[in-house]
């Protein structure tokens, strides 16, 4: 069983494409954060939720479900 349910997370972004892009970007940031630990740089934001999962994508989906990460749509005016 997938936790959090995809339907519930999809309601947060309203589009599948937006969910995929948002989750992938955040998962890359989380992965970079874990890779930089011990180097002392601290340039990436740590995970915003306490998760039992160790997979960056699962953590990103949990963050989206808990409204810690949101999708902001910018429309270009031409």
What's this, in brief?
The chain has 78 residues and is mainly α.
Model description:
By secondary structure, this protein is an all-alpha fold. It is built from three helices and no strands.
Globular, elongated, flat, extended or rod-shaped: what is the shape? flat
What Rg, in angstroms, do the CA atoms define? Answer: 14 Å
Most strands sheet: none
Query: What is the count of DSSP helices, taking H or I runs of 4+ residues?
Result: 3
Write the layout of secondary structure elements.
Elements (H helix, E strand, L loop, with lengths): L5 H8 L2 H21 L19 H10 L13
Helix pairs in contact: 2-3
Give descriptors for this structure.
78 residues, mainly alpha, 3 helices, 0% strand
């Amino acid at each position: 069983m997938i936790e959090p349910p995809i339907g519930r997370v999809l309601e947060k972004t309203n589009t599948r494409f937006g969910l995929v892009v948002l989750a992938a970007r955040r998962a890359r940031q989380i992965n970079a954060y874990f890779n930089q630990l011990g180097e002392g740089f601290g340039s990436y934001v740590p995970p915003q939720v306490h998760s039992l999962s160790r997979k960056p994508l699962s953590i990103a989906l949990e963050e989206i479900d808990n409204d810690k990460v949101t999708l902001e749509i910018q429309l270009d005016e031409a």
